[in-house]
Amino acid sequence: MMIKKLEWHQGYAIDILKIDFQHLTFLQIINELIEMFNNEETDNKADRMKRKLSEVIKYTKFHFESEENVMLDNNFPNYAEHKKLHIEIIDKLDFQIYNFENNTKMFIDFIEFLKHWFFEHIVTEDIKISDYFKKHNILPK
Ligand SMILES: [Fe+2]
Ligand SMILES: [Fe+2]
Q: Where are the domains of the chain?
C-alpha cells in the first residue's frame, strides 16, 4: 500500500511570506513521513517514523505559535477565535498520537487527518488573516 505524496497548490499561499514558508515546510515534513512509510522495511523504520511523528507535532505547535505572534504583532482582531481553533487541532493531534499504533490502517488514517485539518484550516481560516491585512494595507511585521 503506497500513500500519495502531497502537492503544494498556489491556492494554499496566503501571501504572508513567513506563514507560507512554514505551511510549505509542514507539507514537506508530511511528505517525508509518507516517504518513510512507502519505503521498504528497514531495521529502524519504526524508530525513524516515531521521530518524524514527533517532528510533525513540534512543528505544528511552533507554527501555530509563530502565526499567533504574527496576528498579535499586527493587531489582528480575531486572534482569540483563531487561537482557539489551533488549540482544538493540537488537542486532536495529541489524542491521535497518544493512541497511535504502528499499523498501516492507522497510519493512513493519520495522514488523512493531518491533510484534512491542515489544508482545510489554511484555506478557510489562515486566509482571513491575510484578507484582513490586505484590506487594511498592513504589511505584516
Ligand atoms: Fe492558523
Ligand atoms: Fe497556519
A: 48-136
Ligand nearest to C-alpha 118: 2
Nearest ligand to the C-alpha of residue 71? 1
Nearest C-alpha neighbor of 111 from the set 25, 42, 53: 53
**φ, ψ at 32 (rounded to 5°):** -65, -40
Per-residue model confidence as pLDDT tens digits over 38-55: 987 778 888 888 899 999
% of the chain surpassing 90 pLDDT: 70
- Say how far apart CA 36 and CA 40 lie, in whole Å: 8
- Nearest ligand to the C-alpha of residue 19? 2
**49-106: pLDDT as tens digits:** 889 999 999 999 999 999 999 999 999 999 999 999 999 999 999 888 888 777 888 8
Contact yes or no for 82/76 (Cβ under 8 A): yes
Strand, coil or helix: 81: helix
Helices 104-121 and 79-98: angle between axes, nearest 10 degrees: 170
From 77, 83, 89, select the one nearest 120 (Cα to Cα): 89
